[in-house]
């Protein structure tokens, strides 16, 4: 029971990170129907920005989180403008190949600048932990930070999307781009906003992972990027609550499999669930079946 | 003259969709463009609202050529396009759809008044204002599409097939409201396949065929015209 509680906390932390990355995938997909395979690498860049800010500028956790989010959102907007916008009218396969190229470019571009070796993220949060149930359940402050920051960011995202003009424009463009244009919505600007927000969330996830797992390297974005993509598909790609649900679900499953079934199987289980969902509910667990337009 | 199209040409790839179309609308008029499916009616509206680029010609709106302006700027200048098939944002509420219609406006107090005006025109939308737009009936969705179009406070309202897929009694209701909107001072360009209804509503009409203006005249004259009756009104 105590062991289980401990694992639930770990699962929530991992799931929060997946959810943050999955949100960017799903938002970009929702608005331009592109699987942005470079998204995992934006998260990697976020981790390195956090690393640079904490080691070179000696700033604390929160400044590094904010700076990383800002840098990543700018990076996301630039990637969209340079790589994706010129091919917006082309086939989906062209867009997909471009996304993979951007991904490789970021990975090996980063490797060129920072070398391939793994770096150790400084411990900016201290070693305090919360002991529950007479010390048999230990909650590291890092876990609390990860979950709390994820919740704050999701509430902020929800506010932006539901209440602000830019957010409503994003929803309108993702529902019907041409109709949104007829309302006077500037589609290019709205797509930029989407990339900015999605990439900022990935940047935050990068710093959180750096803090949580303490090591970072230029290829660290590949596997979590893929997992977050799976999470977005499991929840229903294009559906924002689906990404959150999918991320937490996958994080929890992986943690439980690692804890009770052997960690060697955790990736296999993740992909097996993906296959099951695609077979049984292709539009995702929270996705809607899109009716054919008449 | 509020809007004038002069020799407008539009191509889709190699297909010549609009072949040198020219027509005009005066302030306060209801003008209708009728014609068969694929004749170029929708393309004409898309060219005016800036979501379809024209190859040559000009589109003068209140003396300014808008043929190269962005769709956003054209909405700002006072042209609102209610597209074919309604195209409401199905996963947003009725109220949010109307807010999207006022997207470019900043005059909050005036926007509030215009919400009320739309609800006066379409009381059923008020009853359903917190409902998701996709759950409305076809007629209600058309009302929402028109209401949303009005929220940008247009000088010129472009309506594409407002009767499409609706029961005759609902069509009648919608067309009565179109007349009311016009009486309140909004100029209207109405594109329709339901030629009978359109000609009964409009002041003037253009009949478009294969991307060219074929016949033009006062709507009541065209209603009586023998060739028009045969070709477009079912005898």
Apparent shape of chain A: globular
Total strand segments of chain A: 4
The CATH class assignment of chain B is: Alpha Beta
Poorly predicted regions of chain A are none
Radius of gyration of chain B: 17 Å
Annotation field: number of helices of chain A: 11
Our measurement of the CA-to-CA distance between the termini of chain B, rounded to an integer number of angstroms, reads 34 Å
Oligomer: heterodimer
Largest sheet of chain A: 2 strands, antiparallel
Largest interface: A-B, 18 and 26 residues
Form type of chain B? globular
Helix content of chain B: 25-40%
Main-sheet strand order of chain B equals 6-7-8-3-9-10
Averaging pLDDT over every residue of chain B, what do you get? 95
Output mean pLDDT of chain A: 92
Given the helix and strand composition of chain B, which structural class is it? alpha/beta
Tell me the major beta sheet of chain B.
6 strands, mixed
**Uncertain residue ranges of chain B:** none
Q: Which range does the strand content of chain A fall in? A: under 5%
Count of beta strands of chain B: 10
Round the Cα radius of gyration of chain A to an integer and report it.
19 Å
């Amino acid at each position: 029971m105590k062991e289980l509680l401990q694992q639930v906390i770990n699962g929530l932390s991992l799931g929060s990170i997946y959810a943050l990355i999955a949100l960017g995938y799903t938002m970009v997909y929702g608005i331009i129907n592109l699987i942005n395979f470079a998204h995992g690498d934006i998260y990697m860049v976020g981790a390195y920005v956090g690393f640079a800010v904490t080691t070179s500028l000696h700033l604390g956790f929160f400044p590094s989180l904010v700076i990383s989010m800002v840098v990543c959102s700018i990076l996301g907007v630039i990637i969209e403008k340079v790589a994706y916008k010129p091919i917006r009218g082309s086939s989906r396969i062209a867009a997909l190949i471009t996304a993979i190229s951007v991904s490789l470019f970021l990975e090996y571009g980063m490797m060129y600048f920072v070398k391939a070796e793994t770096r150790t993220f400084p411990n900016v949060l201290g070693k305090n932990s919360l002991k529950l149930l007479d010390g048999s359940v230990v909650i590291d402050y890092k876990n609390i930070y990860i979950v709390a920051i994820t919740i704050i960011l999701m509430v902020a995202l929800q506010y932006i999307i539901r209440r602000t003009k830019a957010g409503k424009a994003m929803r309108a463009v993702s529902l019907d781009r041409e109709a949104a244009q007829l309302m006077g919505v500037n589609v290019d600007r709205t797509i930029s906003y989407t990339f900015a927000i999605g990439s900022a969330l990935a940047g935050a996830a990068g710093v959180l992972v750096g803090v949580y797992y303490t090591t970072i390297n230029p290829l660290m974005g590949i596997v979590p990027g893929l997992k977050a993509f799976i999470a977005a598909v499991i929840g229903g790609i294009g559906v924002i609550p689906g990404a959150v649900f999918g991320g937490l679900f996958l994080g929890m499953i992986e943690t439980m499999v690692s804890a009770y079934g052997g960690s060697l199987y955790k990736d296999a289980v993740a992909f097996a669930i993906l296959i099951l969902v695609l077979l049984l509910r292709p539009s995702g667990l929270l996705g809607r079946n899109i009716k054919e337009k008449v | 003259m509020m809007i004038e199209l002069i020799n407008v040409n539009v191509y889709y790839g190699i297909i010549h969709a609009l072949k040198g179309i020219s027509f005009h609308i005066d302030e306060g008029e209801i003008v209708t463009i009728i014609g068969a499916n694929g004749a170029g009616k929708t393309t004409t509206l898309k060219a005016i609202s800036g979501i379809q680029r024209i190859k040559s010609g000009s589109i003068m709106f209140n003396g300014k050529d808008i043929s190269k302006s962005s769709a956003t700027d054209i909405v700002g200048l006072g042209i609102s396009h209610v597209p074919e098939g309604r195209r409401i944002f199905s996963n947003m509420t009725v109220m949010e759809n109307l807010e999207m219609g006022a997207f470019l406006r900043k005059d909050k107090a005036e926007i509030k008044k215009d919400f009320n005006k739309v609800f006066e025109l379409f009381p059923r939308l008020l009853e359903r204002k917190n409902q998701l737009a996709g759950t409305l009936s076809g007629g209600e969705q058309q009302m929402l599409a028109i209401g949303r179009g009005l929220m940008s406070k247009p000088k010129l309202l472009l309506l594409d097939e407002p009767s499409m897929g609706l029961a005759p009694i609902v069509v009648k209701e919608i067309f009565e409201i179109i007349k009311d909107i016009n009486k309140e001072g909004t100029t209207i360009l109405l594109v329709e396949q339901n030629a009978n209804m359109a000609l009964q509503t409009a002041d003037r009409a253009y009949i478009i065929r294969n991307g060219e203006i074929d016949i033009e005249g006062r709507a009541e004259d065209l209603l009586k015209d023998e060739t028009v009756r045969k070709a477009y009104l079912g005898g």
